[in-house]
Amino acid sequence: MRKRLPLLSLALCSLPGLLSAALDTNPITNGDFEADLGSTVGSGGSDYTQTVSSWFEANGEIRGDLLQWEGSGNMVPDADGEVWGLLNVSNLSQTPSNTSGAFYQAIGTNEANFDVCVSLDVGVRGGTLPFAAVNVNLYSGNVTGADGSSLSGLGVTLLDTYQITDSVFSAGSTVADAVTLSNLNLNTGNSGIAGQTLWLEFTVVNLGNFDQPNQALIDDISVSAIPEASVYGLIAGCLALTSIMLRRRR
Fold first, then answer.
1. H helices present in the chain, as ranges
2. Pairing mode of beta strands 83-89, 214-226
3. CA-to-CA distance for 39 and 48, rounded, in angstroms?
4. How far, in Å, CA of 192 to CA of 34, rounded?
5. Does domain 26-226 have CATH number 2.60.40.10?
6. What is the C-alpha to C-alpha distance for residues 93 and 98, in angstroms, rounded to an integer?
7. Which of 75, 179, 180, 246 could pair with 126 in a Cys bridge, judged by C-beta atoms 3.0 to 4.6 Å apart?
8. What's the whole-model pTM score?
9. Using alpha carbons only, what angle is made at residue 164 by residues 158 and 167, rounded to the nearest 5 degrees?
10. CB–CB of 152/206 below 8 Å?
11. DSSP state of 155
């Protein structure tokens, strides 16, 4: 009996940690961007500045990434959030020219073969601004995020990507619209190094090579991590072992 008690204690103490790792959800900070706009909410577009959130932006210019209040009169679609993150591809006559905006944030620690499920609202502005495709990228790398720096430029490893095109909008790409996308699956695979920082990035792509601004709006971003099957097996085994020990103890 005395030999079983330490094993029983170990099993019971390990179980909460395993469950916590498997069920860890929503590690995104300020997924609706409202904390960063602060007192300027309601005044229209604003240059993005790194303040209280964990988001970094790649360009530091209004032509790449900024924040947009949904009631600013720019035909921004109404949605659950009050503030949108706006990503822009500038045209050749703008400064900086032909620049793609991006937001990124550290979301945890890389482990092999984990599915990272991303949910978000995506919006398109009305008028003559085509929707720029949004690439949702998953990176691994022990780097320090910095405003004005892209993740790829910092030397991280791309693990997986998911592209959102204007096909998600039923009304077309130049009519103000918004949709909610759930469970966009990205997988960590085996190309990164376990234990490195895991990064999530949203960047835009001008698929049509138009020489005019192309924009995309993102909001209400959340992330959940689903472990590989072996982790579920480990949890199940731990539960079974605990059950057996409890029965024997009785």
1. 4-23, 34-37, 151-154, 229-249
2. antiparallel
3. 13
4. 32
5. no
6. 9
7. 75
8. 0.77
9. 155
10. no
11. T
